[in-house]
Structures are given as C-alpha cells and as structure tokens.
Prior knowledge:
Layout: H1 2-25, H2 30-55, H3 62-96, H4 101-129
Helix pairs in contact: 1-2, 1-3, 2-3, 2-4, 3-4
Amino acid sequence: MGLVGLGCGIGMSMASSAAITAITEKPEIFGKTVIYVVLIEAIAIYGLITSIILSGYARSNELIGLGVGLVMGLIALGCGYGMSMASSAAIAAITEKPEIFGKTVIYVVLIEAIAIYGLITSIILAGYAYGGV
Length: 133
C-alpha cells in the first residue's frame, strides 16, 4: 500500500496544483478539474482492494504476498505519476479551451486502465499463489 500511496500522493499533488492554478483564472471549470484528481484517487482504492485480499493470506507465504503487492504497488506508482503529467496538461488545455474536456479526459482514463489491469493481475496472482483459483 506504500507504493500505491506514494504514486497517488505524487499524482494528486501535481494535478491539484494545476487545478488550483486553473480555477484562479477560470472558476467555472472547477468541476471539470476535480474529475482529473478523482481519477487518480481511484488508484488508491485499487491498492486498498489488493491489501485487503492479501491480508487474508499474510501468514501463509510472505514472499508471495510481497510479490503480489509489488505488482500493484509499482503499477500504481507509475500510473499515479503518468496520470499527474497527463492531468496537469489536460487541465492547462481546458483552461484555454473548455470545450475539449471530453477529449482530454480520454488520455487520463487510458492510463487509469493500466492500473485496473494491475488490480486484475494482482487478484489473479493471489488466487493462483494461494490455491484459490
């Protein structure tokens, strides 16, 4: 969960900074900027789900649990950082042209999909590692 928190913290701080700067110029885009920050927050939920799944297996094999946790943690770290860069650029773009919001959010959602793949992979690996699948 530590790497997940690190990735989300980096991502949310960078996106939030861009959002705060943008809404000082155009307060009407506040709702749109929040969406970018919330998308990054979703990665923390994926890490929490992985942690809950692994907590049930914590005493059976710590190394396998560490490996499964690292899968989600490293993916979340990369996605959090990538989403921060894309979100910051998207927020700057919608400050200039609010009508392109729908197009810019697609790029951020594509990065979010990688985090979802990490969650699915973690669940599958945990199931195989602990004989559940």
